[in-house]
Amino acid sequence: MKNAKKFIALALALVMLFAFAACTGASNNETTVPSSTESTTEYNGEKIKIAANKGPTGMGMIDLMDNSKYEITIISDPTQVVPMLSTGEVDIATCPLSLAANLYKKTNGGIKMLGVNTLGVLYVVSNGVEIASLSDLKGKTVYATGQGSTPEYILNHILKANSLENDIKVEYLSEHSELAAKVISGDVKLAVLPEPFVSVVTTKNTSVKSVLSLTDEWKKVNPDTELAMGCVVARKDFIEKNPDAVKQFISDNKQSVENVNLNPASQGDKIAAKGIIDASIFAVDTGLSEKKAEAAKAEKAQAVISRCNIVFIDGDEMQKIADANFKVYFDADPKSVGGEMPVSELYYAE
pTM of the entire structure? Predict the structure, then answer.
């Protein structure tokens, strides 16, 4: 048993590289979306350099990786974008929403947010405990990760809004992989995990179920806005020098996101092949016939990608969503957004 737990922990440590702080029917039913076209805008003859995170935050850029206009570096640690943007190594980057506010502060307004690209990816998973609503957690212990950061602020906000902050005990572990291993082994019965770890634990132990979406719970207490966790930012000087190229990037990124959401089975294969998410998440029973295996894989891809909540929201709606989330972070800890609420100049507008 000890060796088995060590094996699970090792495997999940590898999967953790694919984390974020995450298709019903067969593939022949997928919808065709026109592929991204090369921009006709002149851009000094150079590729646009982009840093994209492994996990949900980078998944929506998959089609851009086949577009010769873009040079995309896939990174495993979101904080890597700080020096990459500051030194001009990249022009555009994906990052957690809270990091965008801190980047704006650290660079003295040197970056702008182009769009929100990932909504909520946090879920309550259960290994054998019947949970139908948030109130069913009352009197129970829930394990989580991300103490002192966005996941804790979001969870506390939701619990407080439901007057449950004193009725549910939350124990924090330091790593997603550690918590996921404990859920799989049965040592932890209830946990809050992000995608892609939700898919990992439900794949490796079929007794584990995703029972609550914190995105849905957020919406119940914040009906006028969305829970957001990831975004796309760009250097201000790059935007000013290349306005048409930025507009083209936004258009291409939106199209790529649409393609991922409409065609999760085929796009899931591409996402796994590029190393953005672990291919084992899409694995199905090897004993199935080819036709059934294809259908099962498509269904799994639909479930995984839908839980990742990949979007590209720009303009006024981007600012509305981000401001609502920043207010929650600021109320929990002003340092989480750079010590003060972000100003409107953070947001890109055409």
Answer: 0.85
